[in-house]
Amino acid sequence: MFSRLLSVAAAAGLAATPIVGQAQQATAQGDLLGLPSDLSMLGETDPNRRVATALVNGFVITETDVNHRVALLLAANQRPVSDEEMIRIRMQVLRNLIDETLQIQAAEAQEMELPQAEVDQTYNRVAAQNFEQNPRAMDEYLRSIGSSPESLKRQIKGEMAWNNLLRRNVSPFINVSAEEVNELIERLEASRGTEEYRLGEIYLSATPETQAAVEANANKIVEQLRQGGSFVAYARQFSEASTAAVGGDLGWIQLAQLKNAELEAVAREMNPGQLVGPIRIPGGFSILYLIDKRQVLMADPRDAVLSLKQIQITFDPGTSEATAQQRVARFTEGVQAIRGCGDAENAASALGATVVTNDQIRVRSLPDQLQNILLQLQVGQSTPPFGSFEEGVRVLMLCGRDDPQVAEGPDFDQLMGQLENERVEKRAQRYLRDLRNDAYIEYN
Asked: Which CATH number is 2-22+46-169's, of 3.30.70, 1.10.4030, 1.10.287, 3.40.720?
């Protein structure tokens, strides 16, 4: 949870220079307004150079607030940023702080003030999970990265206040009938054995007027993600869907649930770990990340639990490459001659190798390449040798396999909750847009 909270501040991507076609279109629109072709600006031409503070319905967001939240972002992504990117980050963080303030104010206006004790309790729980029951250690860590406990607590307060507000003002008015849930169950049964997907999504809304700028922002986000940025962090920071709170994770879905032919077509061709976007959809743009995929209501072989023996040889410093290669060849030949797991220790001793046994290895916890190899092995067989002269060369011998039971689909209550959450998300987006439209915001 601590990493999830830290990743609230993710790197920003604002509008880049419009492409030629967009510039020509803008010029044509300017002619309709009677604007001169040669403009002489009478004030500051770069609004991003102003001091990043704002007054939101009387509440002051200071430059220190922005600095502390930016520090959380940089700690979450653990990579350097350019001066240009830092400007985008600061502007995005300021917008997020404004939304957070509006959410807290909306809750307080309806006499739903959040006791500080509840915020502190959540903060302490995060510290307990990550700093061995020591909130002071987390305090020190936050200060060491240039942030503060107050900044993280403010973020916690914003999330809790907004959730409380939605539970009282939105959730009670969401209706999902039993017939809708039963229809979904029937569709799941009918699609047994077909693939379902666990997707992450970053959704950015756009109007015809803002479309070019939002698309440029989305391209910048994709670029930063491909350079190593955290998808969870960016989703929490930029996505305008309610799933932003869980890093953009849509959970396990069938592609028809995306309710968009373009997204369905793109996701169907994706492989786990692949990032695609931005994809233009009605109302904005979507960036997709495929976390995993499996077959509907079928057991996943990667959930099998294996009993493995790791047989390994190491090399003394100074061993020549030729000598090492000869030893690897003898090791490979010797491993192939081992007569099952019962013979592993004796054979390994003769080869000058060590053996480590582990009886609780889940297939999906292993690297993808090893997963595919081990799933094809019979008990007593070994993987090809892998490793390096520096770290040692090893094989994994399969000594047992407990296959998963046939998967059970989500029950009635789980599907009911899924449909309710989807509808709450749509209402929440409209709710926040209304708060923005009604707000008095002054920038300094």
From this structure: 1.10.4030
